[in-house]
Structure formats: C-alpha cells, structure tokens
Design goal:
Order of helices and strands: HHEEHEEHEHHEE
Distance between the termini: 29 Å
CATH superfamily: Vaccinia Virus protein VP39
Helix content: 25-40%
CATH class: Alpha Beta
Bound molecules: S-adenosylmethionine
Strand content: 15-25%
CATH topology: Rossmann fold
Structural class: alpha/beta
CATH architecture: 3-Layer(aba) Sandwich
Strand order of the largest sheet: 3-2-1-4-5-7-6
C-alpha cells in the first residue's frame, strides 16, 4: 500500500467527495477535547491537521507516516514548528518509538488494513496508550439503513475505494466495525459525533 502517487491530490480529492466534513470531523473534537501531553499520529497524511493543535498544550507530537511524499508535504507545510516539538517519522506502526502517549490519533488509516493486520495494529497502538490516555479516531462507517445506505455505499465503493485500490492498493475490501476493536482493547467511548449523515464518525476512546 503506497499513498505516494496520490499525495499531491489527496486532500483536494477527499474534499471534492466529502466536502468540508472530511476535515471538520477531525478537528471539531479538538474544541471539546484538546490533545495534550505526548501525542502520536499514525497515518496523518499531508499534515494539514498539524496547525489545529494547541502547541502550548503539547509536550511532543510524534508523526508517523508511511508515504514518503505525504510526509514530505507534512514537513514542508509545518516547517515553522520546532523539531523539538514535532518528530516526523517515515515508517509504519513498527517505527513508533518505544514510548507511551497521552493521545493517539488514527484518522482514516485503520480502514486501509486487512482484518488480520488491523487486529495487530489495534493491540500495538493500545500498548502505546497511557492509562487514562485518549485515542481519537475518525473513520467511514456503513450505516445499514434505507436509502442512505445505497448512496453511502455507492460513494465509498465507486469513488474512494476504486480510486485508492488502483492507486495505492489498499489491503482491505470492506469497512469495519471499529467499535468492536476498541472495546476488545478495553477502551471506553467518551465522545462520538456523526458527519455526512452518519457516513463518517469521529470517536474518542479512553
Ligand atoms: C486515507 S489517508 C488519510 C490521511 C489523513 N489521516 C487524513 O485524514 O487526511 C491514510 C494515510 O495513512 C498512511 N498510512 C497507511 N498505512 C500506514 C502505516 N502502516 N503506518 C503509517 N502510515 C500509514 C498513508 O500513507 C496515508 O497518508
């Protein structure tokens, strides 16, 4: 799986398909629950989200991204931030430093993996979360109700997944019920907000 080819277009494409909700769903939550202390982002993409952090509240932001081009954009866009505060890492979950974090952010990255790998990544990320730490997660959700289900599935399968399948070779073929994975890892939902008619959901787990 490689997002290098789509890196220059990813943000625009996502906004074209989902509108402002694709970003708002990731940042609205910061008003209510400001990320503090040591923060880990896995699969942050182009780094558009970085300016939304309150750096007066952050001890260190560790940004792990597997696409070289995505990471390059993230670094370029945020070159004003001191390397003492932000640590960019080109790598996967295996490259996460051996530390615990107060906040973990995994937005629209978990649905890239096969079920088997997802299970392992959930356990691994959980092991990096401090006691009482918060895990922020925005993902697509399949909402099995009436008419909405049809167009939601249409958007996901026909536009996004087809596009990413041919450009990045995603490992997963379907959307997951992420709640199960968080619950299995002894986490409790403390925040939930739906976007795009329930097609996107942002949750915080503790
Ligand atoms: C669908 S994009 C979402 C990007 C960003 N979170 C956003 O919402 O704009 C998924 C991102 O996760 C990255 N990624 C995929 N697998 C990864 C892994 N195992 N470790 C780190 N990053 C990964 C991809 O390179 C890509 O930038």
């Amino acid at each position: 799986m490689n997002f290098d080819l789509v890196a220059p277009y990813y943000d625009r494409l996502a906004a074209l398909v989902f509108g402002p909700a694709i970003k708002r769903c990731q940042t609205d939550v910061f008003i209510e629950m400001i990320p503090e202390g040591k923060v880990l982002i896995l699969g942050g993409g182009t780094g558009w989200i970085i300016p939304y952090f309150r750096f007066d509240k952050i001890q260190k932001l560790t940004y792990v991204e597997s696409s070289f081009n995505m990471l390059k954009l993230a670094k370029e866009k945020n070159s004003n931030i001191s390397p003492a505060v932000i640590h960019f890492i080109h790598g996967s979950e295996k490259s996460i430093p051996n530390e615990k974090y107060d906040c973990i952010i995994s937005n629209f990255v978990m649905d890239c993996f096969s079920e088997k790998r997802l299970e392992k990544i959930m356990i691994l990320l959980r092991s990096h979360l401090n006691d009482g730490g918060r895990w922020y997660c925005s993902e697509f959700k399949q909402n099995p109700i009436s008419y909405r289900t049809f167009w939601q599935r249409y958007i996901v399968q026909s536009l996004m997944r087809f596009f990413f399948k041919i450009t990045t070779r995603l490992e997963s073929d379907s959307l997951y019920d992420f709640d199960l994975y968080f619950l299995q890892n002894d986490l409790k939902e403390i925040y939930s907000k739906d976007y795009c008619g329930g097609f996107i959901v942002t949750k915080v787990w503790q």
